[in-house]
Amino acid sequence: MRSIILIMLFILLNGCSGFAVLMSGTSIAISQNIYSKAYSGVDILTIIKTDKSIKEHAYEKIKKK
Q1: Over 18-60, what HEC string results?
Q2: Which helix (H) or strand (E) holds 16?
Q3: Residues 13, 19: contact at Cβ < 8 Å?
Q4: pLDDT tens track of the chain, all 65 residues?
Q5: Distance of alpha carbon 45 from alpha carbon 23, whole angstroms
Q6: Which of 5, 46, 57, 59 is most buried (CB neighbours < 10 A)?
Q7: pLDDT computed for residue 20 by the predictor
Q8: What is the residue extent of each domain of the chain?
Q9: What is the Cα–Cα distance from 53 to 19, expressed in whole angstroms?
Q10: Which candidate, 21, 19, 24, places its Cα nearest to that of 8?
């Protein structure tokens, strides 16, 4: 069903740059969500291991300089 809708949109919007912008914006939002989840996962592992978040580690390194 989804592929039929996409094919019809491609036929109707042939050469439409607005549709291309819409599709690229969606992929950016998805990739940012993936990066956010990855950061959160690494941050949780860091907190479990060192009792400090990544931000706290960065703050301490900046403060030492």
Answers
A1: HHHHHHHHHHHHHHHHHHHHHHHHHHHHHHHHHCCCHHHHHHH
A2: none
A3: yes
A4: 777 776 666 665 565 555 555 555 555 556 677 788 888 889 888 889 999 888 898 898 898 87
A5: 34
A6: 46
A7: 56
A8: 2-64
A9: 40
A10: 19
Residue 19 contacts residue 9 (beta carbons within 8 Å) = yes
Claim: this prediction has a pTM higher than 0.85: no
Q: What is the per-residue pLDDT for 57? A: 87
Given a contact cutoff of 8 angstroms between Cβ atoms, the answer to whether 52 and 44 are in contact is: no
Q: Can you tell me the distance from the alpha carbon of 62 to that of 13, in angstroms, rounded to the nearest whole number?
A: 51
- In this prediction, residue 15 carries a pLDDT of 56
Reported residue count of the chain is 65
C-alpha span between 55 and 46 (Å, rounded): 10
